[in-house]
Design goal:
This protein is α+β, with helices and mostly antiparallel strands. It is built from two helices and four strands. Strand 2 and strand 3 form a beta hairpin. It is globular.
Length: 96
């Protein structure tokens, strides 16, 4: 039986460390609304950092978040599944 991807909460520092390790050209996020990780067999294989929108005109709407980073390991055969899982979880967290 294959292992299932799971969403796990993650601190900003851990999400930033994952992004720095796998995408060194990005600077760490300074702040965030929340961060999530996708785990496979207890190992983090992707993270999403959701921050605040940059423009004041965007604040106050039902979706008042901005995906700062969405980063996954490319060594897995589940790249699309990782992005989809994180994306759907972000949408659920910000719209509901």
């Amino acid at each position: 039986m294959s292992e299932r991807l799971q969403i796990v909460p993650v601190e900003l520092s851990e999400a930033n460390a994952f992004v720095t390790l796998h995408h060194r050209h990005h600077r760490p996020a300074v702040g965030h609304r929340f961060s999530l990780a996708a785990a496979l067999g207890g190992e983090i294989v992707g993270v999403a950092i959701v921050g605040r929108p940059g423009g004041n005109t965007l604040c106050g709407y039902s979706f008042d978040g901005h995906v700062t980073y969405l980063c996954e390991l490319h060594a897995t055969s589940r790249d699309a599944a990782i992005r989809s899982l994180l994306g759907s979880e972000i949408e659920g967290d910000t719209n509901g």
